[in-house]
Amino acid sequence: MRKTFSGLSFTITFSIVLILVGCQEPPQRNCSEFKNGKFSFSTVVEGDTLTTIFMRDGNIEVEYFNGRQDTSSVRWINDCEYILKKLNPKNRAEEKSVHIKILTTTDSSYTFEFSAVDEPKKLKGTAFKTH
């Protein structure tokens, strides 16, 4: 004789799952702590670790990467999302604004996702506050 999963069993199981999921703490998001300051972000490209240092103050972000300095305007959409736009783009790719959304924060870092505005593919990274 084969047992079936009754509606009552499903309801009880579903309720337990909701209770367990509901008891987890939501990720910390103290985004305002990261609006200004000095940060570093590293990524691995073709086996090499590349690091970008950037300073954000008000509506300006200055980035140092690979011996080069770039300045972008910062437009905050809300406490956890902003748009970066290079002030002096050197090519068409740099003309595109970048949308950044802070997903979670710790006391010294934030995890974020980013993409060119209107691009569906999003990448993730973690920035560490150094100052």
Explain what you see.
It is a single chain. This protein has 131 residues and is an alpha+beta fold. It has a single domain (31-129), classed as Uncharacterised protein PF14869 family, DUF4488 (Lipocalin, Beta Barrel), CATH 2.40.128.490. 15% of the residues lie in helices and 50% in strands. It has two helices and eight strands; from the N terminus they run αβββββαβββ. The chain has helices spanning 7-22, 92-95; strands at residues 37-45, 48-57, 60-65, 68-78, 81-86, 98-105, 109-116, 123-129. The chain has an eight-stranded antiparallel beta barrel. It is globular.
CATH level-two architecture: Beta Barrel
CATH topology: Lipocalin
Q: What is the structural class?
A: alpha+beta
Number of domains: 1
Could you give me the name of the CATH homologous superfamily? Uncharacterised protein PF14869 family, DUF4488
**CATH top level label:** Mainly Beta
Radius of gyration: 21 Å
Residue fraction in strands: over 45%
What overall form do the CA principal axes indicate?
A: globular
Distance between the termini: 68 Å
What kind of sheet is the major sheet?
Answer: 8 strands, antiparallel, barrel
- The largest beta-sheet arranges its strands as 1-2-3-4-5-6-7-8
Describe the SSE topology.
Elements lengths: L6 H16 L14 E9 L2 E10 L2 E6 L2 E11 L2 E6 L5 H4 L2 E8 L3 E8 L6 E7 L2
Antiparallel strand pairs: 1-2, 1-8, 2-3, 3-4, 4-5, 5-6, 6-7, 7-8
Short key terms for the protein model shown above:
alpha+beta, 131 residues
Quick summary of this structure?
It contains 2 helices and 8 strands; from the N terminus they run αβββββαβββ. The protein is of the alpha+beta class and 131 residues long.
